[in-house]
Amino acid sequence: MTSIVLGDEPAREEALSSPMIFLLAMASGLIAANIYYAQPLAGPIGAELGLSAAATGLIVTLTQIGYGLGLLFVVPLGDLIENRKLIVTTVAMAVIALIGAAMAPHAAPFLLAVFLVGISSVAVQMIVPLAAHMTPEAKRGRVVGSIMSGLMIGIMLARPVSSLLSDVVSWRGVFWISAAAMAVLAIVLYRLLPRRMPEAKLPYGALLASMARLAVNTRLLQRRALYQASMFSAFSLFWTVTPLYLSGPAFRLSQSEIALFALAGAAGAVAAPIAGRMADRGWTWVATFAALTAGAAAFLITHIAPEGSYLSLALLVVAAIVLDFAVTTNLVLGQRAIFTLGAEFRSRLNGIFMATFFMGGAVGSAFGGWAYAHGHWAAASWLGFALPASGLAFFLTERRPEKRRPRLG
User: What is the number of alpha carbons within 13 Å of residue 313 lying toward its C-beta?
Assistant: First the structure.
């Protein structure tokens, strides 16, 4: 068995406390937010550091590239290195990267810093497998769901919070505040996280090679990653395009009003613990069907009312909540499913899963912007509908499992 210890005493799986779950959820949200703070600030950052309009996009792109590489090359170390040490070291790296971004005198060091911010933000994807290790199977879904709700809240609040903070402390102040938060978090995690030493003794190269075999040979992983890729691509499309749509001639909302719109969408994060409980009860198939259907329906409801009306704005808010609810639900169901495949390679499975649907998100953002530029909201929303609809069509080729009683550990 994998060794999990707190201090010098073995930790009981059943003893994962509510305060610890809250700590892990809060840590996940704070770490994940680092990826998104710079997105609404790209304009003023680029102007101050001398980036051209075209090069300003590198601020977001390099952060995402760093995160994607971290998922593939850093997260798998959770199956090799003592987990508390790995998590705290990665968070400490985030502190250094955020300070580097805050102090950058010109573009080159800033772009390097945000690239490292992306890599270090994968600490959140080390926390989730650790929580799964610390939890008995019968309760694993609800615990993972609770932690993922923190992650989704962090993602959804990062952009409006950074926009509002930058008005008070400038964009550099946003990075300083985040660096301070990460420093405090690293200390807290070092003091409170249990130690877990994986049993794997593979060389790093062999560890990476094993990921390729897992990706090719694990059917459940392939399916859950593709379902979530279809959902997250729609999610990324929606949140790339709606700020453009809301600030355009149909609605003419200010940046503060768009920030409030984004806050409304964060309500969908409450889906995570609900999804976890559904998975624990053996309702994964039904919940997945509902999530993929809701993801597609979210785009359809935006066409009910005339464009630019108060009702159409209200329906956009509803669509944001429904879509976020659906994406979060499917994410938790996917992670809960792949974590049943084996504790010894849980971090590698999570890295593959997250990297796959993160690439889907990058595709959704890119094609969403292109569709909006060529066909406005109509084109972008129909593309958004098609993404989860295709995931649903693929899901329906999966045989529904026989109804059974959930195991109680």
Answer: 16
Distance CA 409, CA 399 (A): 25
d(Cα 158, Cα 202) in Å, to the nearest integer? 37
pLDDT computed for residue 322 by the predictor: 93
CA 319 to chain centre: 19
Q: Which pLDDT band holds residue 10 (cuts at 50, 70, 90)?
A: very low
Question: Cα angle at 125 between 121 and 129, to 5 degrees?
Answer: 155
Give me the amino acid identity at 223. Answer: R
CA–CA distance, 230 with 323 (Å, rounded to integer): 12
Count of C-beta atoms within a 10 Å radius of residue 314: 11
CA distance 327 to 117: 24
183-202: burial string, b at 16+ Cβ within 10 Å, e else: bebbeebeeebbebebebee
Hey, which bits of 215-255 come out as E strands? none
Q: 333-369 pLDDT, tens per residue?
A: 998 899 888 878 888 898 899 888 888 888 888 788 8
CA dist., res. 339 & res. 123, Å (int): 17
Give the count of beta carbons closer than 10 Å to the beta carbon of residue 169: 12
- Is the Cβ–Cβ distance between 78 and 13 less than 8 Å? no
